[in-house]
Amino acid sequence: MSAVSIEPAQLPALALQMGLSLDEAQLGKLLQYLALIQKWNKVYNLTALREPAEMFTHHLLDSLAAVPPLQKHLQGRSGRLLDVGSGAGLPGVVFAICCPGLEVSCVDTVGKKAAFVQQAAAELGLRNLRGVHARVESLTQTFDVVSSRAFASLADFTAWSKQALAADGVWLAMKGKNPVEEVAALPPTVQVFHVEQLKVPGLDAERCIVWMRASAG
Ligand SMILES: C[S@@+](CC[C@H](N)C(=O)[O-])C[C@H]1O[C@@H](n2cnc3c(N)ncnc32)[C@H](O)[C@@H]1O
């Protein structure tokens, strides 16, 4: 994966280029969130990336690329989203900032990561965001969208989170290259209805969303 030089100061222009309509407050919160990850990374061991420039492209812009497809799916509806294995809150915190009508829960088995998301929610004033310390398999609430990024194979992701998916809910899995073999390994109870290519500014790498829903099989 290679990256061209790109800087946080370019965020307003990059957001427009990505088809995002964000106000000053949202742009500010995205940069504040990045600063929080950088500040707490050493203490909480949130991400293996250490370089601020890399965090900007590989984490923030990469997560932002999934926002227009998510907004298109929601079509202005409110709803509940669960981000599974969210780590530092990627992409869940970015979704919460960009989609204020969405109630976002970021679940992780590591307590300090869930605590970091709770702290980010407080510091950024995000009342639609919460960090949950749990294994996704143990959740009983249901969600309209269940997302993941850098989490697990499609088969494991859907198997572990299926009880958390609302009856008409969808899975949103952020992946690199179109994961043809992972799709082939899915059980008949999971239907892939769209593989959507993403373009991340400054990232010369393939990215996609695999959209799935539960089917009778
Ligand atoms: C590689 S990290 C990805 C973090 C983040 N989504 C990102 O894109 O940077 C995977 C995360 O999944 C969490 N995890 C693993 N198994 C889990 C489970 N069964 N339920 C919830 N979280 C889990 C790990 O603790 C880890 O933080």
UniProtKB/TrEMBL annotation:
<dbReference type="GO" id="GO:0070043">
    <property type="term" value="F:rRNA (guanine-N7-)-methyltransferase activity"/>
</dbReference>
<feature type="binding site">
    <location>
        <begin position="136"/>
        <end position="137"/>
    </location>
    <ligand>
        <name>S-adenosyl-L-methionine</name>
    </ligand>
</feature>
<protein>
    <recommendedName>
        <fullName>Ribosomal RNA small subunit methyltransferase G</fullName>
        <ecNumber>2.1.1.170</ecNumber>
    </recommendedName>
</protein>
<keyword id="KW-0963">Cytoplasm</keyword>
<keyword id="KW-0489">Methyltransferase</keyword>
<dbReference type="Pfam" id="PF02527">
    <property type="entry name" value="GidB"/>
</dbReference>
<feature type="binding site">
    <location>
        <position position="85"/>
    </location>
    <ligand>
        <name>S-adenosyl-L-methionine</name>
    </ligand>
</feature>
<keyword id="KW-0808">Transferase</keyword>
<comment type="similarity">
    <text>Belongs to the methyltransferase superfamily. RNA methyltransferase RsmG family.</text>
</comment>
<dbReference type="GO" id="GO:0005829">
    <property type="term" value="C:cytosol"/>
</dbReference>
<feature type="binding site">
    <location>
        <position position="149"/>
    </location>
    <ligand>
        <name>S-adenosyl-L-methionine</name>
    </ligand>
</feature>
<dbReference type="InterPro" id="IPR029063">
    <property type="entry name" value="SAM-dependent_MTases_sf"/>
</dbReference>
<keyword id="KW-0949">S-adenosyl-L-methionine</keyword>
<comment type="function">
    <text>Specifically methylates the N7 position of guanine in position 527 of 16S rRNA.</text>
</comment>
<dbReference type="InterPro" id="IPR003682">
    <property type="entry name" value="rRNA_ssu_MeTfrase_G"/>
</dbReference>
<feature type="binding site">
    <location>
        <position position="90"/>
    </location>
    <ligand>
        <name>S-adenosyl-L-methionine</name>
    </ligand>
</feature>
<keyword id="KW-0698">rRNA processing</keyword>
